[in-house]
Amino acid sequence: MLKWSIPIGRVFGIRLYLHWSLLVTLVLITTLLAGSVLPAEYTGRSPVEYWSVGAVAAAVFVLSLAAHELAHSVVAVHDGVPVRRITLWLLGGMSELQGEPADPRTELRITLAGPLTSLAIGVASLLLVVALPDATDPVLTASLGWLGFANVVLAVFNLLPGAPLDGGRVLHAVLWRRRGDRLSAAAGAARCGRVLGLVLIVLGVVQALFTQNLGGLWLMLLGWFLRNAANVELMTAKMRHQLGDLQVRQIMTPAPVVAHTDDDAGTFVAGVLPRLRHHTFPVVDGSYRPVGVLSLRDLARAGDRTGTVAHLARPLPDPARVRPDARVETVMSTAVLRPGLDLLAVVDAGGRLVGIVTATDIRRVCERTSLGLPLTRPPDDDTE
């Protein structure tokens, strides 16, 4: 998840965010179009007009990126995979899924939806350029032509076989179907992504050195991002393999200290916190069902601690409620836990709290499994 992203609304029920780095993309595309792509030989136009058309075309291209990600997300939701959000940023967009496809065919369908959408937009734009009469404004046709070409290139590039590109997901689905092992397929796709990232970096260096073209720097940046993302995916695949069938009940903190919604916040701070070393607490209602989360940072930011705990607590999102028999590797792929701020509430069949899992618990299990150590919690351990 990218920090400093701004929510701008929902499309088909899916939250859409814009990252500040997207401004860099808009400026670069606008500059490219106004300075070299649009037909500058038509001298009757003012520079303001070229820059305005370039800015509009850049914005439309960003909309096509959003359409690409929405295609992924809509198909994912249709196939039973919840989507947390879509974020548009410097290098395109990303759809954050809250689960994994149930089978290779579903993954392939979700993955191909994005490139096919970009390809459809690109082909439609190019066909429109061909269909327009000769008297059409050349600046308009040049903009449409660039948008069509850019979307076709986006579709083709995304299908290169290496994670985290769509082509890497396609490769993962193929390997998964052939080997019958999801984790082995993920490792294979991640290794291809590392190689692809290195190739792009080398190509960028060659282009920058021998052509003095700034596009080489863009290739180097893209290759660096792909290689780092592929490294993360490879590390995650190895960790999931080590975790095996480990369940949440084996790493959770049972019977945690809780705050009740009707507790007085001042009394909780003065009477409970001095006796504890915890940083994060689940907030439960009268039936002992978790409804929120309260951290020391929340209390520090609040300043005025009058009123009940319910007024200071943050709502507990539905994905943060997990069952004791859930697999840890599944939880790790769907949960984003900030140290000292978030937690997972482990609930029984009736929705009542039986334990919690924090970022410390996740980090501990990863470290201990990688070293081959038992998962028993040390008696003097300091939880969040």
Characterise the protein shown here:
Helix content is 54%, strand content 15%. The protein has helices at residues 22-37, 47-78, 104-131, 138-158, 166-179, 182-211, 215-243, 265-271, 296-302, 309-312, 328-334, 359-371, and strands at residues 5-11, 14-19, 83-89, 92-97, 253-254, 259-260, 280-284, 290-295, 314-315, 321-322, 343-347, 353-358. It starts with a strand and ends in a 13-residue tail after the last helix.
Summarize the entry for a quick read.
Helices cover 54% and strands 15% of the residues. It is an alpha/beta fold. The protein has three domains: 1-159, no CATH class; 161-243; 248-371, CBS-domain.
Number of helices: 12
What is the share of helical residues? Answer: 40-55%
Give the ordered list of helices and strands: EEHHEEHHHHHEEHEEHHEEHEEH
Counting structural domains, the number is 3
The gyration radius over C-alpha positions equals: 25 Å
Distance between the termini: 22 Å
Tell me the β content.
Answer: 5-15%
What is the strand arrangement across the widest sheet?
1-2-3-4
Largest sheet: 4 strands, mixed
Structural class: alpha/beta
Q: Name the shape in a single word.
A: globular
Number of separate strands: 12
Oligomer: single chain
| Average pLDDT over all residues | 85
- Residue runs with pLDDT of under 50 for 5 or more positions: none
